[in-house]
């Protein structure tokens, strides 16, 4: 554990807390992509199967359980909550997730560190996480004017990934033999996807305006 990884974990946790608070406080999920939330649920379940047979630390276990349960909690709100589900914009959130899931499955089967079920699923989760935000970003483009809490949620998600890049660099220079090129390449792609959003987020923040993404 180093300061960059801890900061990344806390930023990731904060992003989910911000989204849950938005949904609970406003009783609305407007501007939130259910498809992205479902992809994240798949990512966490696929990645954290080791909860059943490996114990690393209390911190590690608590974080994994939180990410899994919070993902399904958000999905439940958006699908089944009597009020919140009515605010979900189904007509705009139409990204075909099969275009992301299927290539990630094939890539995980072809390019992995070890051809075993747990390792392939872990690799699949890494690939899928790198593109899972795309339905959310496309939805924000379609809705034009984005509320502050939703934009903060997406910004924190991007910041979490950027901090993890610093974590990898730190470990590369301080831990002899440390190498995770699958994680590095996928994380770099994920951060690059956020760059356009970061630009417009900073512009809107400096102008004290609500975020608006170009179509």
UniProtKB/TrEMBL annotation:
Q: Which GO terms describe its molecular function?
A: ER retention sequence binding
Record's family?
Belongs to the ERD2 family.
Keywords, A to Z, come to: Endoplasmic reticulum, ER-Golgi transport, Membrane, Protein transport, Receptor, Transmembrane, Transmembrane helix, Transport
Q: Where are the transmembrane segments?
A: 49-77, 97-115, 121-140, 152-170, 182-202
Query: Can you quote a single GO CC term?
Result: endoplasmic reticulum membrane
Annotated organism of origin: Ostreococcus lucimarinus (strain CCE9901)
**What is the membrane topology listed in the Swiss-Prot or TrEMBL record?**
Multi-pass membrane protein
- Report the domain of life of the source organism: Eukaryota
- Where is this protein chiefly located? endoplasmic reticulum
- Quick check: keyword Isomerase in the entry? no
Show the InterPro entries listed in the entry: ER_ret_rcpt
Could you provide one GO biological process annotation from this protein's UniProt record? protein retention in ER lumen
Q: Does the keyword Protein transport apply?
A: yes
Localisation per UniProt entry: Endoplasmic reticulum membrane
**What protein name does the entry list?**
ER lumen protein-retaining receptor
